[in-house]
Amino acid sequence: MRIYILWLLFFVGITSNSQNCNNTLSGNLIDFHDNSALAGAALVVVETQQVIQTNFEGRYTISNLCNQNYTIKVSHPYCSTKTYTVKVSGDTKKTFRLEHHLEELNEVMVKGKAYSNKSHSITENTISQEKIERFSIGTLGDALNSLSGVSSLNTGNTVVKPLINGLHSSRVVIINNGVRMEDQEWGAEHAPNVDINTAGNITLIKGASALQYSGDAVGGVIVAEAVKVPIKDSLYGKTILSGASNGRGSSLASQLTKSYDNGWYGTVQGTLKRFGDFEAPDYVLSNTGISERNASLRIGLNRFNYGLEAYYSLFTNEIGILRASHLGGAQDQIRAINSTRPLIINNFTYRIDAPKQDVTHHLARLKGFKRFNDLGKLSFQYDFQKNNRLEFDVRRGNDRDKASLDLELTTHTLMLDLDSKLSESINLKTGISAKYQKNIANPNTGVRRLIPDYDKYNLGVYAVSDFSLNDKLILEIGGRFDYTLLDAFKFYRTSFWESRNYDQRFPDIVVEELDNQILTNPELNFYNASTTVGGQYSLSENSKLFFNYSLASRAPNPSELFSEGLHHSASRIELGDLSFNSELAHKFALTLQRTDDIFSFSINPYINTINDFIVIEPTSIQQTVRGNFQVWEYRQTNAQLLGFDIDASYKFLKNLRLDHQFSLVKGYDLNRNEPLISMPPANTKNEIIYNNPKLNNLRIALESVYVFKQNEFPNNNFEVFIPETQTNDIVDISTPPDAYHLFNFNSSLDVNINKKSALTLGFGVTNILNTSYRNYLNRLRYYADDLGRNFLLNLKINY
Amino acid sequence: MKHFKIFSLLLFTAIILTACSSDDDNNNPEPIVEEEVITTLNVKLTPSSGTNPAIILQFRDLDADGPNLPTIDVSGDLISGVEYNGSIELLNETVSPPEDITEQVEELSDEHQFFYTLNGALDATTAYTNFDGNGAPLGTSFTLTAGAASSGTLTFTLRHEPKKPNTGLEDAGGETDITATFDVTVQ
User: Fold this and answer.
1) ipTM of the predicted structure?
2) Architecture of domain A2-99
3) What pLDDT was estimated at residue A8?
């Protein structure tokens, strides 16, 4: 469409009748909603017939103007054309804003973007489609790990949970295709049930600013959006085939889109992934294979003033957990930790045995919007999610093939949002949401429920507004209130019930007393208020300052409230507390960002103070028939996390660029005056990239990743009596592993097959030097080294 | 506009379905009684000859991994020079009647092995008297011969999926299913 406009303008011709007028009008063209730069837009000066295109960064300059009023028509392929009157007096600067209309249905409107750095620069917190495709064979967590300030909490290398500025699990909210994921994210060994291949781009917000979806994102929000579908007749797709030497696995991801110029469109997508046992430099990591099968279907209609869309996706995976990590009590733990090699190493196999996880996630969404002239845009969304998680432990006898944990979490959510424009410079978005969630723990497992049966009801209202005070300053303010009712049926062990004095504190919730268990019906109410205030200020043409304060309030999750018993995968007894209240986090963040063709950087310091922060910590040793186990109890404390993330990019030659990242976070328990557990150690990534668009878009990159040793950690070591030696030995579960340095190589090349098809070939090596290392944030670090060298081949066909 | 109406209709159908489906769940969930739990280890030491009394060693933890401490009882002292036939019984006493876990262990004899560890000054020797199908020790029955008067600890360890055959506990690997230590005296 842009081409047509340009042709048209070309024929109209340019006749400038300047009369000693040497003034210039310059500035930026940005998106009305998220302030992202709009490249390739045409600006027409009606009076002079001058035509100017905005550059890649959305900048324009119109020269030879007089001191007078001009009418300027601004048009962009994805926006409706707008006409402005500008008074030119000397060299004048003016920022134009256009509203994306046609694309909006597929866009997650995240308010509070003043904080999200969403800009067309190298330092942005967005993962582009090109980069996502490079992670096609990996996980969402792997891709996010490439951003500064994001680490991952791993269980082996296939369960990868994003950790944003030191926080994870229930404190990180994932919005997948406009739906807040409800996939039992409370567990540290529960990876997000999102197929990375369904995402067109991924945005990271290091704060709680996505108030439309949640007010409880103490750590941050991850937004995965689908690729936008153009409104024109077309049929296109892509297939990515990847292979990896480590794990001897491959993945196949394919998608096909059909669209019509009347606005209808449809996309089918599917992913298959299969890996056998992965390998550390010196041995096979037995039982670490993965098998994943995903599919999604999207059908929709996109018109200027209304649209609707139906989306369904199925995510299934089976993940083996390192066999050597399945242990009895503390004596086994000592043996495993003191051994330099895993205690169980078998030959390579594709077979996945217990211990393993088997997860199925269904997500269905219906969405529609209608634009009213006087009111704004009204949107509805209904989504349905069903998450079934099976965890298999090593068991005996008839129960050998039975899952030890079988949870089915069903969630229905209804959202109604109104997006209105109060004036030229003020936007207001308001909405309500209602959610019903049901968790059912299958009793056939023969193992007491780790998470009880419950019904959860949630009602939320929010309002967010942004206003441009002038060309330089945009302010945002928002608030959200949530009411949550958690109605659970929980069986307590009588001995635990009494040892906690629950029999005196909560006698009213007892439903039934059995032999050695008590059935209770806790009904817990939580009222959570959250706010965000922030803004962005343009310091100069290419530098900006973002500032944000957010107050996030998170109700305790079922695991924190109800845990009571042996958590086999962690070889410890975990105890929750029924009397917990909500966590309250105050986060201040600043970002100074400079965007330039040659040198770009952003520096982002932050401080997050969390009241009633829920931590789990070891408190005692418990003797059981199976040996001694450490008891970890959840407790509430006040915590503070502070740190900074730095990104920089320097283009020192035409095709050669150096990217740098550095992240540091410190977390402290303010009540006990000691460091928090599992804080990411300081790390730095440096990558040298050669990219030549003229030479088949050849891209060659060499990356160095250096992770320091975490030197601030709580000492949770404990002593255990070893009958064989009659000694008390220390179980060292606290000391972090040493620093490590990895080198990775990545390259790709584009080949045009014909007019409509293009092929991208990729080759990469990770851990080139085959370094043996252990990662502090890998829960299996006690038992085995991390992955050794891995050769990757990637073949993408666009058609 | 037509699409919009269809959509609204779908939406309300969804709401109604949701509302209905959450209505019929007033039944309490059924309790789970864990069957694999081992609460009790009984070791019966019967003199192979003579009239000395049998000795019972019992390790019992009725709330399994609950907060209550296990109880450990030794019914009497061993007599110097006496050979005892030992038999081990494993019970799950959270169910009634108690379930005998020993049978499960013996059925899967190739996946299990008991180890006896003597420590301190305790003067005694042990020997396996039952074996798995491959002739490697299982150890739910054994003999214990008391030596000179002494006292110390006697530990019973059951390993699941150990390396078999092995040269002892250090070498065996596998997962610890049971470990119970008793203070024992030989008089």
Assistant:
1) 0.78
2) Sandwich (2.60)
3) 42
